[in-house]
Automatic annotation (TrEMBL):
InterPro entries assigned: Quino_amine_DH_bsu, UCP028101, WD40/YVTN_repeat-like_dom_sf
Species name: Thiothrix litoralis
Secretion signal, residue range per the UniProt entry: 1-20
Keywords: Signal
Protein known as: DUF1513 domain-containing protein
Lineage: Bacteria, Pseudomonadati, Pseudomonadota, Gammaproteobacteria, Thiotrichales
Key word Signal present: yes
């Protein structure tokens, strides 16, 4: 299906088809889960994982009884997206030429990248749930794109330009009409693996586009072009939190901050932190989750071996707690706790509070190396 046919479907109502109340509620809960906020009691955790021998898996964990099930996948995974009918989509870690669709009762199937593209680790669904958007790199053309696919058959329908290089995370905003994209700004090519080819000239950006047409709505940049915009969280109020990774020389200077926040309709602003505190994170932030009641943002730093907590109300860093390579983060609204995985197999919880609080170990699996993201359902 070409782009014109895709746009005709969108105009005809593919993105906004009428849904029953129960379906809408299920999709709302699933959307909140993908954003790192779970409003219903969590029962199951999904995450990419590795084992000490280097095997790659999609893992699901029953949080109540600790029972775990893993399925081997052909590539290292990154973000996870639950689909309908018990299927789970595992996005390949950049630069990936495939993603994996896991049905726990059937064979694993793959989604190949289109010619001249590779996957960049993330994706999201349209408001109606029928269209899948995937962050991709058009490497020979040196531009970022969102792949557009049917969410049931994964047929490729077209693509949008992300108006920047290296799109990584992408989220659907709560209006159901707007996509927010983290353009990391880094040029890459599969011939060079994960090598970064343009650090001197990189230009990260936070871009909003119309989900039905691909038209750019707005674009934001930070003063320091070495702060790569990597991961996002979009709140129910339309605010956006950003986790950053510093591509400058840490031996010469520390970045001003590694977390940014944007109130709906406002500017993208770095959250305040002292030079001594920002040095804890070794220039690298990964996953993030949000407590809307306390207005606290939790962000993991696997390279800094700390989980950090930030006040979006006061626009500042609060405190950090050491963990061995903390990875995925989600918020358990019913318990007022953040859940954090780590690279040694630990699953921890932290109370959501302005005061420092120690981690509580919930489960531990010594042979499981959790990857950067967790999804709860």
């Amino acid at each position: 299906m070409n782009r014109r046919a895709f746009l005709l479907l969108a105009t005809a109502g593919t993105f906004g088809s009428a849904l029953g109340v129960n379906t809408l509620m299920q999709q709302a809960n699933a959307t909140e889960s993908r954003k790192g906020v779970l409003t219903m009691p969590a029962t199951t955790l999904y995450s990419a994982s590795d084992n000490p021998a280097g095997g790659h898996f999609l893992t699901r964990l029953d949080l109540a009884n600790g029972q775990m099930q893993s399925r081997a996948v052909p590539m290292r995974g990154h973000a996870v997206l639950p689909l309908t009918h018990g299927r789970v989509l595992l996005f390949g870690r950049r630069p990936a030429l495939e993603c994996a669709v896991v049905d726990w009762q059937k064979e694993i199937s793959g989604i190949p990248a289109t010619a001249g593209r590779h996957f960049n680790g993330h994706g999201c669904l349209s408001a109606a749930g029928d269209v899948l958007f995937t962050s991709e790199n058009a490497y020979d053309e040196k531009r970022g794109v969102l792949g557009i696919r049917d969410s049931k058959t994964f047929q490729h329908l077209g693509e949008y330009d992300t108006c920047g290089l290296d799109p990584h995370d992408v989220q659907l905003m709560p209006d159901g009409k707007t996509l927010v994209i983290a353009n990391g700004g880094i040029e890459q090519h599969p011939d060079f693996g994960r090598r970064k080819l343009n650090l001197d000239t990189m230009q990260p950006s936070l871009v909003y586009i119309d989900a039905a047409s691909g038209k750019k709505i707005d674009e934001y940049r930070l003063p320091d072009h070495h702060l790569s915009i990597r991961h996002l969280i979009a709140t129910a109020d339309g605010n956006v939190g950003v986790a950053l990774q510093y591509e400058g020389d840490l031996y010469r200077q520390q970045p001003a901050s590694l977390v940014a926040w944007q109130d709906k309709g406002g500017d993208l602003q770095l959250l305040d932190i002292s030079p001594a505190d920002v040095a804890l994170f070794n220039g690298y932030m990964a996953d993030l989750a949000y407590d809307p009641r306390q207005q606290i943002l939790a962000v993991s730093s696997p390279r800094g071996n700390h989980t950090s907590f930030w006040s979006t109300r006061e626009r500042r860093f609060l405190h950090a707690h050491p963990l061995p390579e903390p990875s995925g983060v989600s918020f358990l609204a019913d318990q007022q706790q953040f859940l954090v995985s780590d690279a040694t197999g630990g699953i921890h919880t932290f109370a959501s509070t302005y005061q420092p609080a120690s981690a509580s170990l919930l489960h531990h699996y010594p042979d499981t190396l959790w990857d950067n993201h967790v999804v709860l359902s």
